[in-house]
Amino acid sequence: MSRIIVLDTETTGITPTTHRIIEIGCIEIINRQITNNNYHVYINPQRQVDEQAFAVHGLSNEFLADKPVFQEIATDFLQFIHGAELVIHNAPFDVGFINQEFSLLATPLAPVETYCKITDTLVLAREKHVGQKNSLDALCKRYQIDHSGRTLHGALLDAGLLAEVYLKMTGGQTHLMLTEENSLDEQDNFQFNSRTDHQLPLRVIKANEQELKAHNEKLTMITRVAGKPCIWEQLQPVTEEQNN
Known about the structure:
alpha/beta; elongated; six-stranded mixed beta sheet; 6 strands
């Protein structure tokens, strides 16, 4: 099972050593499907929110006053993300704040990288869209994701948008794999069926000349893109004469 947590935070400012996290939003993706298992919390930072930060997210000191402090939510938060791949836009920012919060706990925790793999979608976007704007708003527009409700930043809202961006940006065929729970049994069944089914009469449909030509052209294209011969080209090419 491939478990990804798309994560975003809002903070009182931009410097982890002097500012604090005030909101965490997490969206779970399992096997490239967004689930309903989300994590969202507001946090009392025990300090004032900078005016510039308030203008971005609109979370006031009054609103945060009765929220739990990070110490109270740390265990639940770590349990939710533990072992997952964290997908974050501009990851050093959020990771820096999370690690600072972990270090301030009564019993400090190790850096979040100890518990999770980190993937930075800003790095992915810059590699995929060289020389273009790669903010979350720009990516939503590029991938035709509705972000009209994003008048202010919000951790859960932004994580939800980023989850859709990530899936589209890394789109393509998902991996075909067996789960840990059924891999052995299903492999055994497959091997058993293979030994018995081959005894049944099977109709063999051979490729025609046009299909063989298209197949060989596809192999040539794969080799050109990969920069090295694909495994099929290392085998003897199939011809119409051999096919007959």
